[in-house]
Amino acid sequence: MTGTGVTGGPFRLPPYPYDRLNGLRALADSLPGGVVDCSVGTPCDAPPPASVRALAVSGTERGYPTSAGSPAFRRSAADWIRRRFEVTVDAGAIAACVGTKELVASSAQYLHRRSPDRDTVLYPAVSYPTYAMSAQLAGCRAVAVPPAWSDGRGMDLAAIEPADAARALVLWANSPGNPTGGLCDLDELARWGRQHGVPVFSDECYTEFTWDGYPRSIIQSGIDGVVAVHSLSKRSNLAGVRAGFYVGDPDVVEYLRGVRQHAGLMVPGPVQAAAAVALSDDAHVEAQRQRYLERLGFLASQFEAAGCPVELPQGGFYLWMAVPATWPDGWALAEDLARVAGLLVSPGELYGEAGRGHVRIATVQPMVRLRLAVERLAAAGWT
Predict the structure, then answer these.
(1) Order of strands across the sheet with 358-362?
(2) Which strand ranges, in their side-by-side order, compose the sheet holding 226-231?
(3) What is the pLDDT at residue 6?
(4) Residues 6+ apart with CB under 8 A from 221
(5) What is the DSSP string of 147-197?
């Protein structure tokens, strides 16, 4: 297990991970037709039109929105949970957040205020960088849990040191996982958290794009000691409006709701109206699933033909591609792809040292742009 300790000195803000790609972006954008940006999971497809209309006609822009979320937003979230996971929760056990990244980044500092004797954030060793950053922003220890599989998927809970478990504020999980696309055993995670008295926060923003079986949530194992975190950004292509919610253990949810109310964290009223409409509609999600499946299959087959085999993910819309021996690491492969194909991808090292031997490819560009990148690879003799 690896971790960073609290030094007590001044906080030194590290570089923002994706700013490190600026040089590669310029290199890719220098090609005729410009960069094909598959580095960040920013949706390019349209959100549901009814949600866009709701932004303009809700009539909620004049007054302050409720921090916990409007009754309509929370009812819509509860109905979606029942449809998707066959779990019934009271709308009062759900609270809104200003996009889930904000919740991920801020929760450790709020939990630490309530439990100052606990100062450790446990998170997957290969993961979205904000889990570790949440610990740093709270002045806490960030302790990475080793992966269960050699490609970085999952977490080996048996590797968590008892001393770290005793100091843990929270264990973060992400399923389907970013960047690996792997699925976690959410029942096992919930059991571990309850046995050790550690809240388990499950980031489930990619759950609608589960390819191996059905979408899953940690609250299917019961809500005691767990919190599920959900977003409209990926599901409904609404990343620009910043809308999400969390649901689970009543004590934890209510505590965070109260703190966030004091902090003035509120999803704007028109955004809540749009989110309620989006959550009530599943048809646009199915259409988006088909788009991502097409893109994932297309790119995987093209890289396979180019001598860079990659497995399709269990969930999510990323390809987690091992770096062939031709290149020393993910940065070298990413630079080659930028130079030759104008394809911007993320070196796996951005997601933890254990990801250094991979690159992450976000299939968020339309097929016409992905074909352009593949045509450039073919012209350079890659296929």
Answers:
(1) 318-322, 358-362, 346-347
(2) 2-4, 141-145, 120-124, 168-174, 200-203, 226-231, 244-248, 94-97
(3) 59
(4) 186, 187, 190, 191
(5) PSSTTS-S--GGGS-HHHHHHEEEEEEESS-TTT-----HHHHHHHHHHHT
Question: Domain 49-280 is of which CATH architecture?
Answer: 3-Layer(aba) Sandwich (3.40)
Among 208, 268, 206, 284, CA closest to 54? 268
In the chain, where the domains are located: 14-46+284-379, 49-280
SS3 72: helix
Q: Would you give the end-to-end CA distance of the chain in angstroms?
A: 40
Q: Which pairs from 78-81 meet CB under 8 Å and 24+ separation?
A: 79/279, 79/280, 80/279, 80/280, 81/217, 81/219, 81/247
Query: Exposed e or buried b for every residue in 69-86, given b needs 16+ CB within 10 A?
Result: bbebbbbbbbebbeebbe
pLDDT tens column, 247-290: 999 999 999 999 999 999 999 999 999 999 999 999 999 999 99
Q: What is the pLDDT of residue 2?
A: 56
Are 14-46+284-379 and 49-280 in the same CATH fold? Answer: no
Distances (CA, A) of 351 to 129, 176, 288, 354: 6, 15, 26, 8
Question: How much is the pLDDT for 1?
Answer: 59
CATH class of segment(s) 14-46+284-379? alpha beta
Query: What distance in Å separates the CA atoms of residue 37 and residue 14, rounded to the nearest whole number?
Result: 23
Regions in the chain scoring below 70 on pLDDT = 1-8, 383
Per residue in 68-105, pLDDT (tens digit) is: 999 999 999 999 999 999 999 998 899 999 999 999 99
